[in-house]
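Session log. Operator J.P. requested a structure for one protein chain; no other inputs attached. Running the standard single-chain path with C-alpha cell output.
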Amino acid sequence: MRIGLNLLYLLPGIVGGTETYAAGLLDGLAQIDKQNEYFVFVNREAAEWPLPEASNFKRIVCPVNAVSRAKRYFYEQARLSVLLKEYGVVLVHSLGYVAPFFPPCPSVVTVPDLNYCVFGGRMPPIRRMALGFFVKWSARRADHVITISNFARGQIHLMLGIPAAQITVTHLAASAISADDTDLAAVMRKYGIKQPYIIAFSSSSPHKNIPCLVRAFAQARQDYNLPHKLVLLGHRPRHEASAPGTEDVVSTGYLDESSKNTLLKGAEMMVFPSTYEGFGLPVLEAQQAGVPVICSTAASLPEVAGDAAIYFDPLSVAEMSKAIGQAAQTPDLRQTLKQKGFQNAGKFSWERTARQTLQVYKTRVKP
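Structure written below.
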C-alpha cells in the first residue's frame, strides 16, 4: 500500500503532544512495516523534522506554513487531495485533528481529545468556531477515527456523534529516557533546587491545575512537616508567582530534554493534578523513570496510571495535600509505587500503537 501521512499541522517544538504522537507512531511503523510505502506530507516549518531512517518513508514538503492556521486549512482542503492522487496514495491518515473532507481515497483521522470543546471558552471566538467546524466534519467525513484513550473515545462518540464502532483507541507510550551523563547536582545547582523535591509538569493552561497544586503542597508541608521543595517543570501561571506558599516552589521555565529527564529521575515523586487529559503521557514517563506517581482521578488518567498511582480529586486541596503527605512520609509506599510503575509503563509501547494503527489501515483499504 501507498499510505499518506498528513502532518501539515506539525510545528516542531510547539504543538506538544501531537508531535510526540507523530514521532512515536512513525518510529513504530518503521520498526514493524517494511512493505508499505509511507508518504509524509509536512509544511515548511517541518521540512527538517526527523523522519525514520527507513527506505519506505518519503517526505513531501508542501508550500504552506502551519503557523498560518487559515492558510493551512485551505491547503489541506484544496490541494492535499490532489497530491494524494498524484502520489497514488490508497489511504490517508491525518494525525492532528483535521483531515481533507473530500480525499480521493479512504481517510483516517486522529482526534486525540476534545480539549477545545471543554475549554473553548478561553479561545478567541473565531479560532474556537473554526476548530470546532474542522474537527467535527473531519471526524464525520473520515472512514475511521483514531483516538488515544477510552475516555476520549467516549467523548468523541457523545459530542461529535461518531458511532463507537468507527472509533479505535491506540494508546500512547513513553519514549525511552536516555541514560546520559548529565550531572543531577549540576542541574539542581543551575535551577536552585535541593533534594528532596517533588516534581510536576507546569503550564499556564487552566486544566493543568497548578494553582490548586501549589496550595495543596503548602498545606502538606505544614501538616506533615515536609522538608521538600516543589519543582515545576515549565512556566508557572503568572498570577501565581507571589501566591502564599510559593517560597518553597521552584519554576524552571523552559528547559532542554536532557535537563528535564535528569530532574525527573532525581525526584522523590511526581504529582499530576490535571483536571483534563486526553491521555497524560507524563504519568508514563515518570513511571518508566522509576518515579512514584501521585495522580488526579480526572478524565483518562486512571486509565493510563492503572494501579501504580495514589489518586486524589483534583478539585480538592485537602485530598491532594493528604496524598502528597502520605507518600512523602512512607518510603515503603513509594517503593511499591515505583515497582508497579515499571510494570504499568511496560504495558505501553509505540510498536503496539503502530500495529493497532496498521490494522486500521488494512481494514479500510479494499483488496
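Operator note: The mean pLDDT is 93.
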